[in-house]
Design goal:
By secondary structure, the chain is α+β, with helices and mostly antiparallel strands. The chain contains one helix and twelve strands; from the N terminus they run ββββββββββββα. Strands 1-2-3 form a three-stranded antiparallel beta sheet, with no helix packed on it. Strands 6-7-8 form a three-stranded antiparallel beta sheet, with no helix packed on it. Strands 4-5 form a two-stranded antiparallel ribbon. The protein is elongated and about 105 Å long.
């Protein structure tokens, strides 16, 4: 904008409008400033100018903010109704998302895809999707708690046996190498 000062060095006009007693308020409307971080998206900012035109170094007379400084996501928490809340480094918290739960008329009719993934089939019926909570009948979320695993026990047991066999084979190699070195030492004597 354009600033005009009077003879005493006080702000007289801002963009052609009179400034009251050396200060002026104006609003930065949406789209006037390119905000790279999206912090002022869809918001107007009111800015009060209280400046003079003297031949000295400029100084901040007053500084007042009605918003928050920028912050980074530090922590996430989930309540029993599935609301995911983010806590930011500037001390603010914000509800970010809400988790949904699904219930099938016949859970045994789901098609197993592996890695704890299932797909809806005609036998399982359509999913009843809703939000968690005591009123929904779908259940509640228990954050920060452990649940019994739903892993494929047969697959995990097979992997464990394979690892055990590999360990046994490696230990036999070490034993054999040890015996061979012992024999070399005995030959040298």
């Amino acid at each position: 904008g354009k600033l005009e000062f009077d003879e005493s060095g006080k702000l007289a006009k801002l963009n052609g409008e009179d400034a009251d007693s050396g200060s002026a308020k104006f609003t930065i409307e949406e789209g006037m400033l390119p905000w790279d971080n999206g912090s002022a998206k869809d918001r107007e900012i009111e800015y009060e100018m209280n400046i003079t035109q003297f031949s000295t170094d400029s100084k901040v007379v007053s500084q007042d903010a009605d918003g928050n400084s920028s912050g980074y996501l530090n922590d996430l928490s989930v309540d029993k109704e599935g609301v995911v809340t983010g806590t930011y480094s500037n001390g603010t918290t914000s509800d970010l998302y809400r988790l949904a739960l699904a219930k099938f008329p016949n859970e045994n009719g789901l098609e197993r895809l592996g890695n704890n993934l299932y797909r809806e089939t005609n036998q399982s019926g359509s999913a009843d999707i809703g939000t968690p909570g005591s009123d929904s009948g779908l259940g509640e979320i228990s954050s920060n708690s452990l649940e019994q695993s739903t892993v494929d026990i047969a697959n995990e047991f097979t992997k464990m046996i394979e690892n055990q066999r590999s360990f046994q084979a490696n230990s036999k190699t070490i034993t054999t190498t040890d015996e061979m070195l012992q024999e070399v030492i005995n030959i040298k004597r």
